[in-house]
Amino acid sequence: MTSPATTLPRPAEPSEAFDSADLIRVTGGTPLTGEVTVRGAKNLVPKAMVAALLGDGPSLLRNVPQISDVRIVTGLLEAHGVSVRQGEQPGDLILDPTSVGRPDHAEIAAHAGSSRIPILLCGPLLHRIGHAFIPDLGGCRIGDRPIDFHLDALRSFGAVVDKRPEGLHISAPQRLRGTKITLPYPSVGSTEQVLLTAVLAEGVTELRNAATEPEIQDLIAVLQKMGAIISVLDNRVIQITGVESLSGYKHRALPDRLEAASWACAALATGGDILVRGALQGPMMTFLNVFRRVGGAFEVEDEPGELGIRFWHPGGPLSALALETDVHPGFQTDWQQPMVVALTQAQGLSIVHETVYEKRLGFTKALIDMGAQVQLYRECLGGTPCRFGQRNFMHSAVISGPTKLHATDLVIPDLRAGFSYLIAALAAQGTSSVHGISLISRGYEDFGSKLADLGAQVEFPS
Ligand code: EPU
Q: For the segment 109-131, what is each residue's pLDDT rounded down to a tens digit?
C-alpha cells in the first residue's frame, strides 16, 4: 500500500550532511510578513498513530501534516501489518490495525536510527502480538537521550527485555499487569510509554512524576475516545485502569505549538509580522509571556473557524531577559533555540539555562560564526540548579545583543536548530547556504513554500 506521506524527503543521515540536494540558500534582510498555517503537532501525531495499534478497528486521525516523522511511523506501522491510507479530507489518515502480525525483522531494522518513535510501539505490540523488536533509535542529537525509564517501566509491567546487538527484543510471557511507577524525571516519552502500555494491562497503573505536556493531554484524549480509563490527578499523578479491549478513534490532532513559536521567533528576529493560523493561546501561554517580555507583540484570534495568533515586532529595541527551559508548564526546550536567535537582537545581556537536554546549546557555535555574541557556561545560570549542574555540560548561555548577523555556510545539527539557522540567515545580511534541510522536514511541513509566501528570499539550488 502507498501511504500518503511516502513522497516526503527522508531525514538526513550524518553522511548526507553535505548532500548538495539537501540545501537551501537564504538571503536575509527582508522582514517576514503574511500568514502561515500550522497543522497537527509533530510531537502528538506519531504517537496517536501508534495508539491506533491498540484498537480493534480502524482509526481516523485528522490534521496530519506532511512531515517525514509521519512517513517514518507509517512505514513502521505498515511493517507490522497496519494499513495506513489517506482519508477524504486533506490531512486525514485512516489506520487499520485489524491485520497486525509479526513483522519481518529486516524491515524493522531498516528503520534503525530514523526516529525515537519505535520505542513507543512496545506496549501496543506486546498486547497485540506478545513481542516487540526495537532497532537502534534515532532522533535529534541534543543530549544522550537514554531509554532507561522506558525499559524500567516495561519491566515493571512484566515485560522481559533482551538487549542484543541488532536491537531490543521485548516480550510479554503473560498479560501485562498494572503497576506503580515513579519516573525519575517527568519524561514525555516515558509518560507516553506508560500510557500506551497501561491502557490494556490488567488492573490499575499509577504513574507518578508524569509529564503533562499538551501533546500528552491530547494523547490521553485519543486513548479515552478508544475506551481507556485515565485520570489525570494533581501533582503529576496519572491513574490508568486497564480495560479488556479498545476500539478505533476519530480525532483531530492539536495544532503544533512548537512550530507556531518558531514562526513567532522568525517574525521577531526579522522585524516582521506573521499570522500563524491554527496556533492556540492555551498551550502557548508560557511562550507568549516570554515573547511579550522580550518586546514582541501578539494578538489572539479565537473566533470559531478563525483560530490563530498574529505575532509581530512592534518596532524599537527588544529587551534582554533571563530564561530557563523546563517541562510543561515551563518554557519548552523546543522553543529555546528559535528564541535564542531572536535574543541576539535584544538590547543587553540575556541568560538562557537549558535544563531538559544537556547539549541543546551546541547549535550556538554557528550563531557566533555569524557575528552573535554568545558565551556558554557549565554552571546553572540565572535559575534553579538542574540535573546538569555538576556534570560538566555547557548548558547555560549568556547572549549579548543586539548584534548584526552576517551570512555564512551552515550545517544543521538537529531539527529545531535547523529552523533556528533559517531564522538567523533571514535576519542576517547576505546569502547563507544552509545544509541538511531534510532534518527540518522531520517537523516543519512545506517550510520552503511557507517562507517564500512570507516574502523570504529562499532558493533550493537542486
Ligand atoms: N530521559 C532519560 N531516560 C529516559 C527518557 C528520558 O534520562 O528513559 C531524559 C532525557 O535524556 C532528557 C529528559 O529525560 O534529558 C527529557 O526527555 P523526554 O523523554 O521528555 O524527551 P522525548 O520524549 O525523547 C519529546 C519530544 C522532544 C522534546 C521532549 C521534551 C517527541 C518525538 N520528542 O522527546 O521533541 O524536546 O519531548 O519536551 O515527542 C523536538 O520536537 O525537536 C524534540 C526534540
A: 777 777 888 899 999 999 999 99
Q: Which of 141, 154, 185 to mutate to test the pocket of ligand 1 (most atoms within 8 A of CB)?
A: 185
Q: Rounded CA gap, 62 and 45, in Å?
A: 9
* One-letter amino acid for residue 241 of the chain: T
* DSSP alpha helix (H) spans, 115-210: 122-129, 148-156, 188-198
CA nearest ligand 1 atom 5, residue? 147
State how far the Cα of 201 lies from the Cα of 205, in Å rounded to an integer.
Answer: 8
Q: Are 218 and 253 in contact (CB under 8 A)?
A: yes
Ligand 1 nearest atom to the CA of residue 44, by list position:
39
As given in the structure block, the three cell numbers for residue 392 are: 560538566
Residue of the nearest CA to atom 28 in ligand 1? 334
Other CB atoms within 10 Å distance of the CB of residue 259: 29
Which residue has the CA at smallest separation from atom 30 of ligand 1? 188
Residues with catalytic function? 140
Average pLDDT in the 124-139 region?
A: 90
Residue type, 117: I
Where is pLDDT greater, at 106 or 126?
Answer: 126
Band (187; pLDDT cuts 50, 70, 90): very high
* Residue 414 grid coordinates: 538537529
Q: Which atom of ligand 1 is nearest to the CA of 358?
A: 15
